[in-house]
Design a protein that fits this description.
155 residues; mainly beta; Tachylectin-2, Chain A; four-stranded antiparallel beta sheet; 1 helix; 10 strands
């Protein structure tokens, strides 16, 4: 749904299930979820929403899992799938992910995971959809295996 009046009213819902179905070419998912949290709009207008997918074979059907994004370049009229950012076991059960555009224009994902390092993982992309870097643990971002949040403050 979209709003053009600061959320006083919304358009009718649009079914975007087909976007997620395109992920099946690379990963046979049974569970898919956004965020939780928010997507973001980049300076160029692109909308991106982090998603995580599970094949449903373990741990309350939430494991093993992968992280990706969906994005729109036409103000949410249509949605595309982005690249897979990371998958288990490269990072132990990556899941709830937040996105932010950094001041240099890159997009950073902050990725929940269950790795023994107990740190959030981060990955970067120049366009928020493709070309993600291999995730690395961020020493200052402790991972209590819980949803995290993030926003950018510009001075």
């Amino acid at each position: 749904m979209t709003s053009t009046d600061d959320a006083a009213t919304f358009s009718k819902p649009v079914d975007i299930t087909g976007t997620f179905e395109r992920c099946r070419d690379e990963y046979e998912w049974k569970v898919i979820a956004t965020g939780p949290g928010h997507g973001t709009q980049l300076d160029n207008g692109r909308l991106i929403v982090p998603v995580w997918l599970s094949d449903g074979t373990g741990g309350h059907a939430h494991r093993p899992s992968i992280v990706s994004v969906i994005y729109s370049d036409d103000h949410a009229k249509t949605w595309q799938r982005g690249d897979v950012v990371v998958r288990h076991p490269e990072l132990k059960n990556p899941s709830e992910t937040l996105a932010v555009q950094l001041s240099d224009g890159r997009v950073m994902l902050n990725i929940r995971n269950e790795s023994s390092e107990h740190r959030r993982a981060v990955s970067y992309s120049n366009n928020g959809a493709t070309g993600w870097t291999a995730p690395v643990f961020h020493n200052e971002l402790v991972e209590p295996v819980c949803m995290g949040s993030m926003t950018r403050l510009t001075k």
